[in-house]
Amino acid sequence: MLNVNANTGQRPVRPHRAGRVRVAVVGAGYVADFHLEALAELAAAGRVEVAAVCDPDLERARAAARRWNVPSAVAALDELPALGIEVAHLLTPPDLHAPLARRLLEAGIGVLVEKPLALASAEARALAALAEERGLPLAVNHNNVHHPAFARLLDAVRAGRLGPVEHVQATLAVPLPQLEAGDVGHWMFREPHHIVFEQAVHPLSQLHALLGAVRSAQATLLGTRELAAGLPFHDRWAVAARAERGTAELFLAFGGCAPRWTVLVLGSDGVAEADLGHDVLWLEEATPWLPFWDGYLAARRKARSVARDARRALSGYLRSTLGLTRRQDPFFAGMRRSLDAFYAALAAGAPLPAGGREGAEVLEWCEAVAAAALPARPAPVADPVPAPGPPRPGEVVILGATGFIGRRVVRALLDRGLPATAVVRRTHALPSPLPEAARAGRLRLVRGRLEDAESLASALAGAATVLHLATGGGDTWEKVERSMVRGSIAAAEAALAAGAARFVYVSSIAALYTGSDGGEGPIEDSLDTDPKPEGRDVYSRGKIATERALLALHRERGLPLVVVRPGVVMGAGTPLQHAGLGLWVRDRHCIGWGRGDRPLPVVAVDDVADALARVAAHPGPDLHGRALNLCPAAPLTAAEVVAELGRATGRPLRFHPRPLWLSQLLEIGKWAVKAAGRRPGNRFPSYRDLKTRALARPFTSRTAREVLGWRPVEEREALLDRAVRVYGRRTDF
C-alpha cells in the first residue's frame, strides 16, 4: 500500500490493539455514503467496526445508519465516548473541522478528517501537537493522492524512472452544478477563497506529494463573477509556485470549459502525465536511439499505455458491474485506498498517510494560493442585512427564496408592491435581489429550516400566504421522502398553526402521467396525479406523494392549498442541460425522450414567477383545493431547443432522436447487467416513466389563464429570447 507520508518525519502512533477499531462517522451529508461504503469493506475484512453515525440532524443520522446497518445514531459528539468509539471520521463542513477535531481528541478519540484538515496551517499544527501529546491518530483524507492513476504516477517518480522532478503542471477544470443553478449557499461560495480549500486542495495535495512543502506561490485571477451582492467568485486561476523539490504550475477552472484533470511531471530524464478523469497514465523515458526513432518509439509507447489503461478501466467497470469484483470507479478506488492506508498504518503503528503535520503543509499550499483572493474581498459591511421587523398585513412568505425560481418570485412580488418575507438558512452570501431589497426595507429576511420546527414556526408567524418552493430532493426514495414529503408536510402544518390564509405548493408536471396512451386531448388542470407512482422515478414519486399528503391536510384539516405545476422551466441560472429535453451525455449530446418532434411545454422562469405572484395576490378562496398547470402552448420541440442552445452558446450541442422502445431496450440491458452483478437498489426500468418523460400530450393551463389572467410568452422568437438564448450571455442572475 502506498505510504505517502513515509518521508515527512511525522511520529508514528501507538499500534492499535488486536481486533477491530470501533469507528463513528460524524456528519451524515453527501460524502458520508462514500466513507460508509469503504468502511463496510473494511468491516467485512474484520479491520473495523462501524458503531455509530453522528449528526445534529438525528433523523438524517438514523437514515444513514439504516442504509449501512450501523447500530447507533446519535446527535452529539458527547455521546460517542460511551459507545467506545476509538476513531471518528469527521465529515462536517470545513469550518467545523478544527473545533470538532479538537473536541474529539480531547475526548480521547482519534480523528480522520475529510479534507481540508482545518482552514489554517497553524490550527492544523496545533491539532497535530495535541494528537501527539495524547498518543492519538490524526490524519486528513487526501483521497486523490490515492487516485489510481496518480498513485501509479507517484510510484514511477519514486522508482526514479523520470529522474529528479524538475517541474509539475496540473490542471483542474471541473463543472460546479451549484454555479449553473445559482445555488450560492454552499460553504465553498461564502467567501472568495473558500473554493481553494474545497476544490483546489485536491491538486494541491498532489503537488505536495510530488514536490514537498511550498516555498512561495503567486496566483493570478483570470476570471471573476459576482454570485451575490458584494460576493465575488473567482472561477479561473493561474498559479506559479516554488516548492521544496521543484516548481509547479496549476490552472483552475470552475465551470465554462470541458472537464479536465491532469498532472504532468517533467523530470530530468523523462515525462509522465496522469489523466485522472479517465484513469490513464503515460510515460516518456530517455532511450539510446537517435531522435527520429526515439520520437517514434515514444509516441508508440504512449499509445500503448493509453490503450492498456483504457482496456483496464473498461474491464474493471464491466467486472464490478457484473459483481465479479468490488467497485472500481477511480473516485471510490481512491477513497478506499486512502482509508485502507490509514487503518493499515494504525494497525502497524507506522506514520499515518497524510497525518496532521503533512495536512498542515498542504494547508500552507492552500494559504499561498488563497492569498490572491483575499485582497479582492471588500471590507465587511457592518450589519449588511437588517433584522426583520414584524410581519405586515398580507405578508407573503417564500420558502426556497434563494433558488432558481424563488429569487424571481421575490422580484415579482416586490414589483407588485406585495409585502414579502424570504425564509433563508443564512443571511449572508444571498443572491440578488434579496439583500438589496432587505436593506431598502422592502423585504424581510428570516432564518429558518424545514427540518427545524421551531425556526419554521417563527418564520411563518404572521404569514397570509406561504409560497413553498423549497421542496428538497435526493437520489433515493428514503432521502426524497424525508426532505420533500416530510419537509413539505412540516411546512404545511406550520402554515396551519400560523393561521395562513393560503398555502401554495410548487410541484411539477412530473407528478402527472403525460404519456400518449394516457387519454385523448390535452391535459386539463386537475388534482389527480399519476395513479401508478410505483412506476415512476424517485423525484416524480416524491412530487406525487407530497401532493397527496397535502391534499389530505386540505380535506381533513382545512389547509388552504393551491398546487402549482410548472412545465419545462428554462432561463438564466439553471443548467442548460435540462432533463426535460432529453438524457444529456457528456454535457453536449442530448438523447431524446422519443423523436423530439413534439412541442414541449417550455416556460420562461419569469413567467412562472409572474404566475406565483398572481396566486399570492389573488383575492378570495376560489383557488383553494385546486391545481394549476403552468405550461405555455409554445411551438418549440426538444430538437429545436437543443439546436438553438448550440447556436446561442457556440457549443457543438447535438440532439439525437431515439424511439422510446429502443431506449427501453437499452435500459433493460443495463438492468440485466446490474442484476447479474447483484447491484443493490437495481429496479427494473419502467416503460411508464419513459413514456411520461416524452411529454407527448399538450396542456391547457386553463385555470391560470382564466382565473389569474396569466399570459406567458408563447411566440416562438420571443420565448427563444427569454428562455433559451439567454444561455449564450454571461449573467450573474
How would you characterize this protein structure?
The chain is α/β, with parallel strands linked by helices and 733 residues long. Helix content is 38%, strand content 20%. Helix 1 (32-44) packs across helix 9. The longest helix is centred in the middle third of the chain and has 31 residues, at 291-321. The protein is globular and about 85 Å long. It starts with 20 loop residues before the first strand and ends in a 9-residue tail after the last helix. The model is unreliable at 1-9 and 379-383 (pLDDT under 50).
The helix tally amounts to: 21
Q: Report the count of strand segments.
A: 25
Structural class: alpha/beta
- Provide the β-strand percentage band: 15-25%
Q: Classify the helix fraction into a percent range.
A: 25-40%
Distance between the termini: 48 Å
Shape: globular
Strand ordering within the main sheet: 8-9-10-7-11-12-13
Q: How can the largest sheet be summarized? A: 7 strands, mixed
Mean pLDDT across every amino acid position: 90
Report the C-alpha radius of gyration, rounded. 27 Å
